[in-house]
Design brief:
Strand content: 35-45%
Radius of gyration: 21 Å
CATH architecture of the largest domain: 3-Layer(aba) Sandwich
Shape: globular
Strand order of the largest sheet: 5-4-3-6-7-8-9
Length: 410
């Protein structure tokens, strides 16, 4: 898969739809229109992003994602983005679902445990690929709604229950595969115990705003661990959250790895995710360290950008000061006003039910490395935020380094 497409953000990004790009369906879209949009999504967002397993692609092609999102969000169902589903939870973006499913290597005889039913969409995608899906959701209203949706749509090999996913589902263990769609700080031991010999588990692990998607394989009773990509999933609640040692501090907002020096492998910077048309570059001319990010786009309106989440408490922080070093070559505006280089901050309240957006515009044209600065106001109700850095539909080449955010006390 190409690293310009792999990164994930399973958070409420619906308010950033205009910046993310994609083709949204009209609210009154017909079934035929939904099918066409689903085909486009699989072709342009999933297959072109590097997912190649034909069984996985076919499952994404036939699973009606719009049935798993609330009616107000259905016009965005086939845009590659996470969407809010209520209860402070989200449905992951289609590429995330496809990528995790492919890395799980589902087989027709597999018994799969899913932690975090959410909307039921991931279980629905797995359903035609495996023998049985056992899915656990800790949030009762969400889990009951997902069970009704799965039953209504005829997914007969999916069993659901309400419970704490940290404990797994020992009555049905061992499982050939385990997929976790929420993030604990450490891998729960019960899940390790319930994975069959030779089985695979995919799980996002880490701090609240800095996680890594990890693939585990059980060999001779031991877990072989492979770090895949940076990620941002909603936290695993219950016992996993109670055991969390590193808690976010919204009174001191800051970004991680703003100089892009820390990497998972040769071209994957840590802390940043959901990158599109970006590449990690290296050279002696980098303003900070040796690495920087390069965004390059030739098609107007196509996204070239990257994200990072961070805590910010609007009760304590009045303003965010934003600074970075940038250079550009032939950067021109995209198809519409606002499709220009920028740093965009999307604020969310503690339930992710309320949001607002602010931006610092960056220059177009051609210029060498220069410092860019700006500030945005923090709403008093804000408790977390997502920052987007990139070209937002502009064309040309845009490099950034030493990205910083600092909070001004209220």
């Amino acid at each position: 898969m190409t690293h310009a497409r792999f990164l994930t953000a399973a958070v409420a990004l619906a308010a950033l739809a205009g910046a993310i790009g994609g083709v949204a369906a009209p609210p009154d879209a017909t079934a035929e229109r939904m099918t066409l949009l689903r085909e486009r999504m699989v072709r342009e967002d999933i297959a072109s992003g590097g997912v190649s397993d034909p069984r996985v692609l076919e499952s994404l092609r036939t699973t009606p994602r719009h049935e798993f999102v609330p009616p107000p969000q259905r016009h965005l169902a086939y845009v590659d983005m996470a969407l809010p589903i209520g209860e402070k939870q989200t449905i992951s973006g289609p590429f995330v679902v496809a990528y995790m499913t492919e890395r799980l290597e589902p087989a027709p005889d597999d018994r799969v445990l899913e932690i975090g039913t959410g909307s039921g969409y991931q279980a629905a995608v797995l359903s035609p690929l495996v023998k049985t899906v056992y899915s656990i959701e800790i949030n009762k209203p969400l889990g009951e709604k997902a069970a009704r949706t799965l039953a209504r749509l005829g997914y007969r090999n999916v069993e659901t229950r309400i419970g704490d996913g940290f404990e797994g589902w020992p009555e049905h263990a061992p499982f050939d595969k385990i997929i976790v769609t929420c993030s604990p700080e450490e891998i729960p031991q019960p899940l390790v115990d319930q994975l069959a010999e030779g089985g695979r588990m995919i799980i996002p692990v880490g701090e609240r705003y800095e996680q890594v998607l990890v693939l585990l394989t059980k060999r001779d009773g031991a877990m072989v661990r492979e770090a895949l990509v940076p990620s941002l999933f909603v936290p695993m609640t219950g016992a996993a959250e109670d055991a969390r040692r590193v808690l976010p501090d919204g009174t001191r907002p800051a970004l991680g790895n703003g100089g892009f020096e820390e990497v998972l492998d040769a071209d994957v910077p840590t802390a940043w995710y959901y990158g599109r048309q970006m590449a990690l570059a290296e050279g002696d001319d980098a303003p900070e360290g040796r690495r920087y990010l390069r965004f390059e786009n030739t098609e107007r309106g196509r996204p070239a950008q990257v994200f990072q989440g961070f805590p910010v408490d609007g009760r304590a922080v009045a303003r965010l000061e934003i600074a970075l070093v940038a250079r550009a070559e032939g950067v021109r505006e995209g198809n519409a006003a606002g499709e220009s280089p920028a740093v965009v901050v999307q604020f969310f309240d503690e339930r992710r039910a309320r949001s607002s957006r602010a931006a610092v515009a960056l220059p177009k044209g051609t210029f060498g490395w220069q410092k860019e600065e700006g500030a945005v106001t923090v709403p008093p109700w804000a408790r977390e935020a997502i920052v987007l850095v990139g070209m937002l539909g502009a064309v040309g080449r845009f490099d950034v380094d030493d990205v910083r955010i600092t909070g001004t006390p209220r």
